[in-house]
Amino acid sequence: MPVQFAVSDNKQEVRVTISGRFDFEMHDQFGPVLESVQKFGNARYIIDLGAVQDIDSSAIGMLLLLRDMAGGNQARVELIRCRPEIKDELSMANLDKMFTIA
Amino acid sequence: MTAQQQNHPVVLHILIASGDRSSRAILTAIIQSMGITPVLAEHGAQALECFREAIPDLVLMDAVMPIMDGYEATRQLKQACGNAFVPVVIITARGDDAALRIAIDAGADDFIATPYSVEVIKARVQALLRIRDMHEVLRHHQQQQQRELHLAEHLFTNILARNTQQIPGVSSWQCAATQFSGDIFLARQGPGGIQQFLLADFTGHGLAAAIGALPVADLFVAMSEKGFSIGDIAVEINRKLLRILPRDMYCAACLLEFDEKRTSVSVWNGGMPIAYVLDQSGAIRHRFAASHPPLGVLDADRFDRAIDILTLHEEETLMLCSDGIIRTQDAHGKKLGQTGLETLLSQHTTAGQAFAALREITLSSLAGRAPDDDLSIIELRVGVFTPATTGLPVSKEHSQPTGSFDVVVTLDATTLRLCNPVPQLLNLLSEFQGAPSHRGRVFTLLSELFANALDHGLLDLDSGIKQRKDGFAEYYREKMLRLAALTTGWIRIVLEHRNDNGQCLIIKITDSGAGFDHNTVSSSLEGNTLYSGRGIALLRSLCESVQYHGNGNHVEAVYRYE
Asked: What is the pTM (predicted TM-score) of this model?
């Protein structure tokens, strides 16, 4: 599955692992992640992009939506294992400051 | 029973073509037992005639017939069908694979070998009629969607085309991933001759992306024509997009503003790729990288309207593109990338070459494929796109006779920090006075007088800074710093419109500043044509009179509408 997510036992941490091409086509599969945000509210969200080859603006839009639903400026959304290309993409759009990027 | 029969009882029309009288009779009996009266043909040519008279819903066709056999009749019938789906069942005594192949190759949709049972014929006919119904529903939806798309495309193209001015020295190339582009490029000359551009790229592509383009285009054009700065425009577009777009959609945008003499450019870049300034040898002199997130992301409290400003030279060129250009993959999956783009720019030294080369390399990467994303390349040749003449043309026009009115506005320090009153005042004047060809001149007058009061009266800025290399940018930065720190002072603007002896506008501006010795300053600037001295000389050329009073912090200008 290109989008998988796991919730920690104490429900404080949601870990989402995405693989392949992260673009508009992933919209449907990203749906359950957004539903989980509604359920767990201000948990910490760790988005593992290590297996993502490519990211486009629709995908960044989904991450922004997740951030918004998880509390906007108070949200804790971390993008981890980002490849340099993905970091470039985020910084080109000047959206790198919206997330914690590792 | 088909869906069609259930919903709208229609008479089904089945054609039976057979050279054999008894098999025609048997097939007729079977079809009649289904409640349908068939049309009969005795050979292929006759079947085609029947087909032309009334297109059947289904055809049962004997393979062997006199004059024209079933295969040939099927071939011709299928050709004549066009988009419509008329199922043809071939009936043959040969039950082998080769016979099946011939039937299917001729275009038949099904194949029944004799001897057949009544139930087989009924079942096949029912199944094919069901497929035919689905086909019809699909075709109907498709046609409707096509019509709607055409209409949307028509509206979209017209709205955007109306908002695009053709300007010499400005080249643009755009290529959409689908029928609709989520990339938009708009150019508009504001009052007073400032030139503004917008290159925007919505999330995704296609109709969903394009829909957002319409309100953006509307706002940009309306505000640009009223004389709002790109900072103001960015704030408003952001506000509007936040309200109307779903939260996972946003709009990367680069707004540019050239002053009326084309000596400087202001840039607000939100999430677009780097906008390059190339010098006369084609080398990269400056990069305007995105300094803000795209529009429609940050709420109004966090939105930053700050712009970057750069002094320009006449021979320079600006190059902009959407991220589709940087991300376009060639046949080997290799992208151009930022480095590739800069290498390409550095290889071309003559104006216009880099633009053409970038377009060529993108087209050759695509090799005839449709792009995955919307593509845009924009080139602006600073010295070529026509600067507005200072003596803005005033055409003869019919303006409504007006009476007299006064507008009095006093702005305190807080208000001055937050907004520029000139566009609003200009609109107010236009509402009452309604002579559009004077807009540019009145805008210039108001802007200059207001800027003088603010810059020199309240902020105590030295125009001399502008004479230095890159002075304009430095002046602007200093102005923004001092404005942000402004806590005291005020500016009062009085506009008196009179219609006694022809229409005239008296503009009186007073500021709370220390003032200046207007006798020496204004006369020394009289003959000054340099950029910084433009102010007073320009005012005098536009007005019947310009007079400073008091200790220089009160100015009165008289403008005649003639």
From this structure: 0.70
Residue B319 and residue B355 in contact, taking contact as beta carbons nearer than 8 Å? yes
Considering only CB atoms, B247 lies closest to which of A58, A68, A93, namely A68
Least confident of A17-26, B461-470, B520-529: B520-529
Altogether, the residues listed in chain B come to a count of 562
Buried b (16+ CB within 10 A) or exposed e, B529-554: eebbbbbbbbbeebbeebebeeebbb
- Which pLDDT score, from 0 to 100, does residue B542 have? 80
Q: Does B321 touch chain A (CB under 8 A)?
A: no
Q: What's the distance, CA A34 to chain centroid?
A: 10
| Per-residue pLDDT at B528 | 40
Identify the three-state secondary structure at position B301: coil
Pairing of strands B375-381, B317-321: antiparallel
Flag if A95 and B203 touch (Cβ within 8 Å): no
SS3 string, B397-412, reads CCCCCCCCEEEEEEEE
Strands, sheet with A76-80, edge to edge from the N-terminal-most edge strand: A3-7, A13-22, A44-55, A76-80, A100-101
Residue numbers of B between 203 and 222 with CB closer than 8 Å to A: 203-204
DSSP3 helix / strand / coil % (chain A, rounded to 5): 45, 35, 25
CA B353 to centroid of chain Cα atoms: 25
Tell me which residue of B429, B483, B455, B454 sits closest to B191, measured CA to CA.
B429
Which one, of B445, B436, B437, B440, lies nearest residue B505 by Cα?
B445
Interface check B424 vs A, CB under 8 A? no
Alpha helix (H) residue ranges in B42-168? 44-53, 70-81, 97-105, 118-162
Residue-level pLDDT at B516:
67
CA B269 – CA B273 distance, rounded (Å):
8
Question: A–B: how many Cβ contacts below 8 A?
Answer: 59
pLDDT at B410: 93
CA-to-CA dists, residue A25 to A32, A62, A68, B206, angstroms: 14, 11, 21, 14
